[in-house]
Every structure is written in structure tokens, then in C-alpha cells.
Amino acid sequence: MELRSALPAALLFGGVLGAAAASLGSPRAEGDDTGGSSAAYAVSAVAGVDAARWDIPVVVNDPVKRFVNLFSGKQQDRMALYLKRSGRYEGMIRGKLRERGMPEDLVYLSMIESGFNPNARSKAQAVGLWQFIADTGRRYGLRVDGYVDERRDPEKSTDAALRYLQDLHGQFGSWYLAAAAYNTGEGRVSRVMREETGSVKGEEADFWRIRRLLPAETREYVPLMLAAALIGKEPHKYGLGEVERYLPAPTERVSVPAATDLEVVAKSVGVSEKELRALNPQLVKGMTPPGKKPYEVRIPEGRAPLYTANFERLASAAREKARAEKLERERVEKERLAKVERERRAKVAKARGSKSSARKVAAAKTHRVREGESLWTIARRNDVSVAALKRANGMRGSSLKPGQRIRIPS
Asked: How high is the mean pLDDT of the chain?
């Protein structure tokens, strides 16, 4: 995935927090909704774990200890936030891992990718719980367009991420190497493995063997995952035993017509639009995508009968309102264009009138002398005095020549 992680945990270089933590700055990253009192954001106390069980090899070395100390020290509040969010998605992720026969501890890879924030976005434009870039997401079956971004869909993005991790494990034979390839791309890990071990496939120990040859972010990736897992499994050991975790929001799906605002769906099931958007973060414009096919929208569990009873009436009212608003916009725009056209025509008419007047004035102020004409006859014909004619033409005498042009004063 070419160093695209949002990395909610910072890299530690020489004891100093690295700048690679794209989402470490604010406890409320893009799209984060840790507040609120609705059922979707309820919390429950989590009992301490007496003995952690592992299904991936655990190495507690200096790189891992550095991150454990970081998360239980300076960044303890950050880790507490990630543990809170984990309650919303950890059960779903572990269930899907079990279904595929994969290590459940890979759930902590999502923690270090996004801090369990489905709206997380990295500087490399990787998105979601599993930080897919658009191309990789599409390659693994996710829809990514202007209306739907399934990288933000917790369940669909988890399915895609687990398929990807399975493919990587099949390629490298090791979950540590698969995790490294997930972060930096399979091509780079393959190249380094061939150069260092002579084979693409390897064991968990091979990650530590090639670690120095990997990019800085990837070098710390597996230690980050292990540190997050150590704390996540036994938070009481690290001062985080009292953290309350958000409960999952039980949902069901309803089929909603294309191009429907989520506001209408929310009203029909009796929840706020904000809550419904939180349940459907993949609908990036707050509406189902346009087209002929309906789209499945998650609603709080048990609200489907309300949707069935209320949706058509509310949708019809919304369509009428939208139609009226459209007609009003068209009327206002028509009036605006008419006003612009009137002003344009008035401006053109004024310009033409000015030119015509100028031509008339210019014609009225000059006279070509004809044979036999004198100042006196020209003055009488134009109702001016001879003296005025002389002054207008700077004349001292009274002689004229045929063809001569003289100015006639107004």
C-alpha cells in the first residue's frame, strides 16, 4: 500500500516522536464522532484480562518496548481513545477473522492503521479502518466513486483487507512479512527478501532480519502492531484498565431507492441524520447513489417497520419540496437572465444613440463651401452671425474658397 497509513501512532526515532503520524495531532480526526449520547455511541466497562492468549507470535524486544512505553506514557490518552473506539468494531473484525481461519490478533493492525476510525484519511489519500488507497480498494472489490466510498464501510473494507492479508500471507508465508507488505507494498518486501534471504517466502523471524532494509515507517509497523496488541489485550497492566469502550451499534439494512437523501431515511426511522450518516460513512454525499438500482442503507436494529410505514410518504413530500425548490430556482434564474439581457440591450442602445448623436453633431458643425457662397449666406442659412463664423474658424478676413470646410458654431 506504499506507505499510505494514517498511522494513528507516531514513529519513534531516537526517542523523539516522528512526524509520520498523520492522524496523531487531534483526538478528533476527520469524521471522528466520539461524542453523543445515542445508542450508536453507548459505552460499557471492560473487565481486566487476567491472561492474554495469542494467535500470532509475540516478540517483546526494544522496538516493541519503545512503543509500549509511548502508548502507556506520553500517548496514553491517544491509546485510550483507540481502545474506546475498538469496542465498536473489534467484535465484528474478530468474527470475520475466525470465519477465515486467520489470527484474531490481526485486529490490532486496524488499530495502528486508523485508530478504528472509519473516516480516517492519510496524506497519501488512504481511507478507512484499513487505510486502502483507491486502486487497491477497487482491486479487492470495494466501490470508490463520487457517491460511494466503501473503504469507509467497516464491514466491506474489513472483508477486503482480510482477503488482501490472506493473499500476502500466501505470498510470504509469514504474518509479520504480510503486515510489512500491507504497509509498503508486496513488491518492495519481495525484493528485499530475495536480496537478503534468497526467497520471497519466509518466517516471522525474517521480518527482523530484513527490518533494517525497509522504509522507516514499515520498519516500525510490526513493532507498532505488537505494542498495540500487548496493551489492547491487557490494558490494566498499562494504566488503561478503566477505559470504557463504545458498544457496537446493532443495525439492519433496508433497500432505499437511488438518489435518496439520508435525511429522508433518518426521519422515516426516527433518528437524526447525523446518526444515520455515522452508520453509513461510505455514503460520502449523504445520499444513495443515482441510477436505477436501490442501495442498502444501515439503520438502527428494529427500525425496519418504521421505514416501511413512513418512507414513501416522507419521500413523496421531499420530492415535492425539491420540485418546488427547483422551480423557484429556475424562476429566479430566469428573472436574473432577463434583467441581464435588459441591461445589455439598454447599454447597446445607449452606445448606439451616443454614436448617432456624435455623428449628427459632427455633421451639424461642419460645412463644405460651395461655388458662390459667402460668409454672410452661410451665416444666415445656419442662423449664426458672421462674427461667430469667423471666431469658430479663426478667420480674420471674409474670403472663402469652394470646397473649403468651415465649422458652424452651435
From this structure: 86
* Cell representation of residue 28: 478528533
Superfamily in which the 366-407 domain is placed by CATH: LysM domain (3.10.350.10)
How large is the C-alpha radius of gyration of the chain? 39
Helix axes 76-99, 154-172, angle to 10 degrees: 80
pLDDT tens per residue, range 337-391: 999 999 999 998 888 877 666 665 555 578 888 888 888 888 888 888 888 888 8
Of 129, 210, 215, 204, which is closest to residue 173 (Cα–Cα)?
Answer: 204
Cell triple for 155: 464491514
Q: Cα–Cα distance between 125 and 5 in angstroms, integer?
A: 9
Could you give the CA distance from residue 174 to residue 85 in angstroms, rounded to a whole number? 28
Tell me what percent of the residues of the chain surpass a pLDDT of 90: 68
Contact call for residues 171 and 186 (beta carbons, < 8 A): yes
Cα 154 to Cα 280: distance, rounded to the nearest angstrom:
9
Closest CA relative to residue 129, chosen from 138, 137, 139, 117: 117
Q: Report yes or no: 295 and 258 within 8 Å, Cβ to Cβ.
A: yes
Residue 218, C-alpha cell as written in the block: 514499515
CA atoms within 13 A on the CB side of 406: 26
Using one digit for the tens of pLDDT, what is the confidence trace for 196-244?
999 999 999 999 999 999 999 999 999 999 999 999 999 999 999 999 9
Catalytic amino acids?
A: 113
**What fold characterizes domain 12-246?**
Lysozyme (1.10.530)
Evaluate whether 132 touches 1 at the Cβ level (below 8 Å): yes
Three cell numbers, residue 306: 418504521
Q: Provide the residue ranges of all domains of the chain, joining segments of one domain with +.
A: 12-246, 250-363, 366-407
Is 60 exceeded by the pLDDT of residue 76? Answer: yes
Q: How far is CA 102 from the centre of its chain?
A: 32
